[in-house]
Structure formats: structure tokens, C-alpha cells
Amino acid sequence: MACAADEEEHPQFVGADEVCGGLFAGPTAEMVEKVTEEKVFFWKSDKGMGRVVTALEEGYESGRSWARGGRLCALSPKGARQTDRGGISYSMYAPQDVEDEGLPAGAELYTMGVQSSVRKGGASLYFECTSPRLEGSDRTPLRVYGGFGRGESDAPDNREYRNMNMQILHAVTLKLVKELDCEDNAGLPKTPVLTPK
């Protein structure tokens, strides 16, 4: 056997509730299935959270105003082309990124976080994190940008589906905030605020 001892057997395809170590488990999985119009995805490991947390911590410690983060979870439906993939990624943003409110065509601002917006194909959320894990963050918080993209989908573009895009991003972001040990949930509510600005 050429397998590494710590490699576990896993199915090639799983439901939305099992992708990326159960990242979307519960009601969020149903929303992922609705907005992607898919029920079967390539299995992805649960190591994305650790990679993103490390990338954000290293980015913050570098002292730069922005830093690349990482993809927390790729959503690759069975039978999809490379370009059809969606997923959730996080990075460290520069302060001027939210001052320039230039949004993609068809996107609209929401009121949650430092800045948030939704569009047909996804959602974006900017927030700030003060954490005992990040020295100096009580004076200069870690600035995090999160983005969700649903990939190729013919799902409708209406308020219900735009809200689901934001609900998916919010649910996963709360898990990241917990991993980063952000004080006060990084200012994010436990229930997403789905109010257009």
C-alpha cells in the first residue's frame, strides 16, 4: 500500500453537508444546494480552515496593509468544468478597499459588518477582528475580507437567493471568527442582517 498512514479513506463525491469537513452542515447545506443547483460535490478535506487561519495570522504579523489569504472551501460539483467551481475564500484587506465602494455590476450593499454586498453569483463581507492570538490587534484589528461564489448556476437572481448567498458566507465566517478567537464575534451578529443599504 502506497498510502500515507494518516490518509483516511473518503468517498470521491459527497453531499453539500460533507464538503470540507462538514463546513456547511445543517441548514446551510440546503442553501448551498439551492444556489448552486447541485447536490453532489467532489470531496474536499477539512484542512482549509487551518490554512486560512495561518495565512491571516501570518499576513497580520507581516505588518503589511493587505495579504493574500486562502481558499477555505472549493465547491466543485460532480461533472463541472474547472470554471464552474464556487467556494469561499478569505484574505486581509487594506483600509482603502472599503472606502472605494465600487461594486461589480448588479451588486448591492448590505448593512452587516464593516461592509457587505450581495450579487447574483455570491456575496462579500468585510469585518475586523481583535484577538488575543494577534498581538496589537486591540489597537489595529485584523481586517478580513470574505467572499462566497456559487459558481456556474442557473438559479434565479432574486432577493431570496441573494440573501442565501449572504447567509452561507455569514455562517461560515462565524466559524472562522471562532477559530481566530475574535472578540465579540468580530462585530458580526449571530443571525445575519439581510438589510440592503
Written account of the structure:
There is one protein chain. The chain is of the alpha+beta class. Helices cover 25% and strands 22% of the residues. The protein is built from 4 helices and 8 strands, in the order E-H-E-H-E-E-H-E-E-E-E-H. The chain has helices at 27-36, 48-61, 96-99, 159-180, and strands at residues 13-14, 41-42, 67-75, 86-92, 108-110, 115-119, 122-129, 142-149. A 6-stranded antiparallel sheet has the order 3-4-8-7-6-5, with helices on one face. A two-stranded antiparallel sheet has the order 1-2. A hairpin with a 4-residue loop joins strand 5 and strand 6 (115-119). It is globular and about 45 Å long. Residues 1-7 have low confidence and may be disordered.
Strand arrangement, major sheet: 3-4-8-7-6-5
Please estimate the helix content.
Answer: 25-40%
User: How confident overall, as mean pLDDT?
Assistant: 90
Number of strands: 8
Q: Largest beta sheet, briefly?
A: 6 strands, antiparallel
Low-pLDDT residue spans: 1-7
State the end-to-end distance. Answer: 57 Å
Radius of gyration: 17 Å
Beta-strand content bin = 15-25%
Silhouette: globular
Provide the succession of SSEs: EHEHEEHEEEEH
